[in-house]
């Protein structure tokens, strides 16, 4: 997580923008907030696992520049993502807010 925080921070992007959404919605007068935490586990070598492994490899140099991981860490992650005997949570549905007929959905990639 620190690797992602540092990488996005150097680009001037707040990695935790999604965490502010409930506060913003509250300030806009949302009175009813339903929270869903749908975090499915996916096996290695599934479509999402392969995509996350490719993403980590594509971002390898940026991750290493944060000094929070090594090339070996990325290689281990890629091996993990390709191994059907391993399982991980790659994404989750983080919230749904409703106000009258208005509804917002948000996905966070983790």
Question: Could you characterize the architecture of this molecule?
Answer:
45% of the residues lie in helices and 24% in strands. With 110 residues, the chain is α+β, with helices and mostly antiparallel strands. Strand 4 (91-99) and strand 5 (102-109) form a beta hairpin. The radius of gyration is 17 Å and the shape is flat. Residues 100-110 have low confidence and may be disordered.
Number of helices: 5
**What integer value in Å does the Rg equal?**
17 Å
| Oligomeric category | single chain
SSE series: HHEEHHHEEE
Sheet with the most strands: spatial strand order: 1-4-5
Taking pLDDT < 50 over at least 5 consecutive residues as the criterion, the unreliable ranges are 100-110
CA(first)-CA(last) distance: 9 Å
Secondary structure blueprint with pairings:
Elements: H1 2-10, H2 17-27, E1 32-34, E2 41-43, H3 47-58, H4 60-65, H5 71-82, E3 87-89, E4 91-99, E5 102-109
Antiparallel strand pairs: 1-4, 2-3, 4-5
Helix pairs in contact: 3-5
Give keywords.
single chain, alpha+beta, three-stranded antiparallel beta sheet, 24% strand, 5 helices, 110 residues, two-stranded antiparallel sheet
Give a short overview.
With 110 residues, the chain is α+β, with helices and mostly antiparallel strands. The protein contains five helices and five strands; from the N terminus they run ααββαααβββ.
């Amino acid at each position: 997580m620190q690797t992602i925080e540092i990488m996005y921070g150097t680009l001037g992007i707040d990695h935790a923008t999604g965490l502010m959404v409930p506060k913003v919605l509250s300030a806009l007068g949302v009175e009813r907030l339903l929270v869903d935490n749908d975090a499915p586990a996916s096996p290695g070598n599934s479509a999402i696992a392969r995509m996350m492994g490719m993403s980590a490899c594509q971002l390898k140099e940026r991750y290493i520049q944060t000094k929070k991981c090594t090339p070996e860490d990325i290689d281990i992650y890629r091996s993990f993502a390709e191994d059907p005997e391993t399982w991980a949570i790659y994404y989750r549905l983080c919230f749904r807010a409703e106000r009258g007929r208005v509804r917002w959905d948000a996905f966070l990639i983790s």
